[in-house]
What does this fold into?
Amino acid sequence: MSQARRYLLRNQDIPDIDRIEVYEANQGYQALRQALGQNDPAALVDMVKASGLRGRGGAGFPTGVKWSFLPDDGRPRYLVVNSDEAEPGTFKDRELIEHNPHQLIEGMIISSYATRAREAYIYCRGEFRRGAEQLRRAVEEAYRRGYLGDNILDSGFSLDIKVYRGAGAYICGEESALLESLEGKRGNPRLKPPFPAVAGLYGMPTVVNNVETICNLPPLVLNGAAWYRTMGTEKSPGLKIMSVSGPVNRPGNYEIPLATPLRVLIDEYAGGMREQRGIKAVIPGGSSVPVLTADQLDTPLDYESVLAAGSMLGSGGCIVIDEHTCMVGVSARLLKFYREESCGKCTPCREGTYWMTDVLNRIEVGEGKPGDLELIADMADNIGGKVFCPLGDAALGVVVSAMQHFAEEFEVHIKEHACPMGARLYYDTVNY
Amino acid sequence: MKPHWETWAKEAKTEFPKANSALLPLLHRIQGEEGYLSSDTIADVAHLLDLAVPYVESVVSFYSLFYQRPTGRRIIHVCTGLSCALGGSDELMHRLEAKLGIQEGQTTPDGEYTLLEAECLAACDKAPVAQVNLRYRESVDLEAADELLKGEVES
Ligand SMILES: Cc1cc2nc3c(=O)[nH]c(=O)nc-3n(C[C@H](O)[C@H](O)[C@H](O)COP(=O)(O)O)c2cc1C
Ligand code: SF4
Ligand code: FES
It folds into this structure.
């Protein structure tokens, strides 16, 4: 299909845009000049509010509103960019930092100016070796060109950006665990409130935003809030990057106007199913959200519509599952992820993900017992809403919805003492 | 304790002066040289940053990329996340286990390879995905598995 003009993934059109000369030759740092030239940080916050931009890290919280929560009490403020991307099925932030790091840095400078932060951090997932290298190089280049440091472009505004590497822990994507990690601690989530806006990094007012969220700032400043609202819906305006994986012809990252139907994303952007396989289910927003079924493919991909369909747009990690794939296996695989990544702070999550993985695995290999499905439902009940942070609840999204929509498939495993699809997805290691 | 670690500790504290923020960068840098963080190294780091040894130990043990046992010259992470599983990651892992004669989580006796499982590496469109010393190898089908084990690598 013909791709509309891209704003966030321009790296797919412009070779070498990761180099500062190429970035500058393509309007790079123009938005920054414009923002600083207007000399009105509050107007920038209002513009972001008016655009309706929502956080792309998963929760979809309105960005301008979040910024305006910072108390005006004279304490130093921080901007922290969340580049810990580790939600299974999501791979947009990695493309953004590896292939167009200056876009993020320009967005960070504008965001820091708007929120009056003088120091900003990028928390980069430990596994992203190249991503961290690209960011560090780009930060250095930006200093050399006078976009960072003291008195940026003679505006009187000063900012330092530091790149901080994580060390392997999904939970550090959760903003308060991220801040703990950035302070040199174990990545255990903090009790909220207080929220980071009030007491964040080093106890100071802090904005935590996702990479993609901040990458929206340069095009937003150049084109304006009204332009952003020409795409999407009233409550979900603008552009979203969807990461599509699974047996489609062209897996990859696609920039869509919000409210594009799921079917269009799969068939037109991602080239349809390989070998024209049928679709059994789609996880539309990363591993933490409930599955949609084949009869829900017309769901528009905006926050409200996906919620109304029983799932969430989340991070935009869209995993397509074909008709030959076992939903018990899918559930077991994802539960294993949450078991491995549970930080261990609270018992229902630490123990519950462990036992649920065990029971799902035994069902998958044909050793399930009558009552196992009730047992899983009971365990899910004991986790849902009873855990310290959202990871525990996130672990339930797929398994609970899969048991609802594909109950027979689960039952057959137990009755016939085997996976009708050959348990191809069974895999476990005991390293806990 | 190596003498230049003191310089590294100072640099980490200069870049990240607040709270214990210097800890992770220093651990990364020293592990990059040593391959892993022994209990002696952990004690050295604690000393360098004026932290309690059990504190540093507790931080190290939290993160999967900090290793407390010796690792091979090539650390191979095979992603076993859902999208990679749909693309054949389990067969890849089993092939590598058979080739290397070790199990996931182990290091070959000659100290050349460590084979580890990774959770989603954020490259699901290129399933199955692996990393060698954190450098991506994409669409690693069974034929390409042998290539994973060859070639020059950066530490
Ligand atoms: C378990 C867990 C993992 C998360 N991982 C990420 C992540 O990798 N990247 C991210 O931007 N947000 C992640 N989040 C959401 C963050 O807590 C936070 O809401 C987000 O960074 C805010 O940025 P935004 O408003 O721009 O979306 C995660 C949340 C939870 C509960
Ligand atoms: S819900 Fe899980 S990840 Fe969150 S604090 Fe509890 S144990 Fe840790
Ligand atoms: S599942 Fe392997 S990279 Fe995402």
About this structure: Chain B touches chain A through 46 residues (CB under 8 Å).
